[in-house]
Task: structure prediction
Amino acid sequence: MFNSIHEECGVFGIYTNKPTNVASSAYFALYALQHRGQESCGIVVNERGVFKTHKGLGLVNEVFSKRVLDEFENGKIAVGHVRYSTTGNVNTANCQPMTVRHVKGALAIAHNGNLINALDLRREFELKGAIFHSTSDTEVISYAITRERLECGSIQEAVERAMYRIKGAYSLCIMSPKKLIAARDPHGFRPLALGKLADDEGYVVASETCAFDSIGASFVRDIEPGEIVVIDENGIESIKTHCGGPSSMCVFEFIYFARPDSVIEGASVHKARLRAGHFLAKEHPCDADVVIGCPDSGLDAALGFAQESGIPYGVGFIKNRYIGRTFIQPTQGMRENSVRIKLNVIRETVEGKRVVLVDDSIVRGTTSAKVVKLLRAAGAKEIHMRISAPPFISECYFGTDIDSKENLIANKHSVEKIAEIIGVDSLGFLSTDAVVKIADGAKCGFCRGCFTGEYPVEVPKEFPKDKFETKFDE
Result:
C-alpha cells in the first residue's frame, strides 16, 4: 500500500546500570522502528544528569551520522523517537523527544498516539501562562506532567496524576535526571514492551519487540494498559493505579503498522497477517491462477490466502527500495507515474493469468487503481482484489492518519462500485468480525472504530487533524 495509511510513531528508552554508549543502542533501535515513522527522529542522552539532544527531519541514517553519534558521551539513560505526524506540522519544532526544563529538573518525553482532549488542555494551559513552541499534543502531555511535578514529590507521581487529565492514546518514554519511565494509556491503544539487556546490565522499553532484537536485548513482557513502569538504580517499580479497565489495542497494528517479526500482546504479527489471508480466502473465495501481495504488508496476507485457497503464491511486484522519504516528483508526468517508479510488475507471474491481488487497505482508491492498471498492462487476464482489513468508513482519533470521512471511498460507495472505480473484476474486504480474530492468542481487546464508527471512548464531535494549526494559527 502506498501513499494512503501512514505509519505511527515509534518510541524507545534505555536504562543501564553503568555508563555506556546508550546513544548507539538508541540509534540501532530507532533503525528497527523506522517503519513506524519517516518524517523525523531524535535521541536524548542523559550524560551525568545533563541532557544532550540531537534530532531533525529525515530518516535515522540521514539525521545521525557517525560524527553525530561520536559527540554523545557515555550515559546511563536515553530516549529516542521516530515520527510520522498525524497532528502537528512537519517541522523541527515538532521533532521528538521533547525536552522540558523546570524548577525541579528536566524531563525528555517521546510519545506515540493522539490525545482527544489536547486542544482543551492546551487552551487551559495557555490561559494560565504556558507558552507552546510546537503544534504537537506531545508538548501538551509534557506540560500536564510538569505542572503536576511542581506539586508532588516524584516524577512517577506526577505522571500518575497527569494520566487522570490526558485522554486518548499514548505510549510514553520519559527520562528524568535519574529515572526512565514508561507509561501506557488505560485502553492500551498503542503497543509498548519491556525488555532486558544482556548480562543483567539494565532494561529497555520500545514500541515493538523488533527493537530489542536489534540491540541483543530480550523481551520480558508487554507493559499493561494504564501501567507506569519506573526504572532506576533500585530496579523496576510498577504502578497500576490506572490499570484494570477493558483494553482496546488498535487492530491495525497487526494489519499494517507493526513489523512482521514483532510480537504484540503475545501474538505474532506475521502469524496475524497469515490468518487474515486465511479468513479472506474463506470469506471471499474465487477461481484464480496465482495469488500475489502488494509490498510490503500485503505479502503475508497473500501467502495466507494462497495457503487456505490452494491457489499458488507468486511474487508479483518488485519494490524499489532506494526511493526514500524525499523522493522528488517535479513534473505532473512523474507524479502520475510515481507508483510505477516505486513498484514494478513481474510480467512472467501475471501475464495471461487470473490474479488474486492482496493488499492491506483501500483509503481513497487512487493508488489501488494505479496498481491495477500496472497489472492490466502486464497482461493480467482477471484481477480479483482482496483486502486484509474491513472498509474504512470513519476517522481515527488515536494516532492513525486515517483521512476524513468525505475522502474515504468506502464511505461513499458500495463494494461493487469501488471494484468498478479501481478496475478489478471482484473485490472483497475482511469482515469486522474476522479482523479481531486474526491475532491468535492476543491478550487484549481491540479498537476497530475506523471500520465501524464505534469507539471505546467518547470522541469529540469536531477533531480536525490539524487541530492546533486550525485553532491557533488563524
